[in-house]
Amino acid sequence: MKRILASLVLLITCQIAWAQESFSDHKKAENTTREAVGFDASKIFAGGGISLGYGSTVDGNNETNTTFNIGAIPEIGYNLSNIFDIGLASSINYYSTTSTYSISAKYRNINYSLGAFVRIHPIDDFFIQVMPEKDWIRQKQITSDYTTIYKIQSNSFLVGIGYGHRIIGESYFYSLVMLDLEKDRYSPYNYVDANGTVSPLPVIRGGFNFYPFRKKQK
């Protein structure tokens, strides 16, 4: 249900943003020469950044579950317009979980992922990001009695809000906070309690983008 609502919000936001940009472009066209339409290599951006997440919960039995993650996220994208960006992002992420249930356990995981993102810039300095993602996880479970290794696949649907002073053609920094609405119990962005309830953890990312093929000023 949350995924459907997120898609509807995205669709409505796109329509509003597109309408605003169309009106702005129409006004500019009255006073400027119409630019060529087509692919423009100078609008390709690349870069990425780091991810950082932390969460701790306590259930009714005073048993705690603490999760920490850190990772790197390279990305490449393209400016479709002054409002819309599209791109691909991959990541390698390490996260650890410590549980103090009836049998204390530690989990040490390495996560590889690949996703496609859409960014919408409805107002200056803020943007909305939607990114479906596929994750591959290698998990090591450690208890006092044994150590077990699992290989897991999961799906994520990350939605969030970011901040960054984006000017097409100019390098910029950004920060981003997202939640996973997919609620896959094996997702690295979710926490599963003793009752099997899945809760999303905040995903905090910071990054830097630049334009490798930007046009030189004459």
Summarize the structure.
This protein is mainly beta.
List the helices and strands and how they pair.
Layout: H1 2-29, E1 44-58, E2 64-79, E3 84-99, E4 105-123, E5 126-142, E6 147-163, E7 172-180, E8 190-192, E9 198-200, E10 203-210
Antiparallel strand pairs: 1-2, 1-10, 2-3, 3-4, 4-5, 5-6, 6-7, 7-10, 8-9
Can you tag this structure with a few keywords?
218 residues; Porin; eight-stranded antiparallel beta barrel; 1 helix; 10 strands; 56% strand; elongated
How does this model look, in words?
The chain has one helix at about 1-30; strands at about 45-60, 65-80, 85-100, 105-125, 125-140, 145-165, 170-180, 190, 200, 205-210. It is mainly beta and about 220 residues long. It has one domain (about 50-210): Beta Barrel (Porin). A hairpin with a 4-residue loop joins β2 and β3 (about 85-100). The termini are far apart. The model is unreliable at about 5-35 (pLDDT under 50).
Report the strand count: 10
**Fraction in beta strands:** over 45%
> Per the principal axes of the C-alpha atoms, what is the gross shape?
elongated
Might you state the CATH topology name? Answer: Porin
Q: Which sequence of SSEs, written as H and E, runs from N to C? A: HEEEEEEEEEE
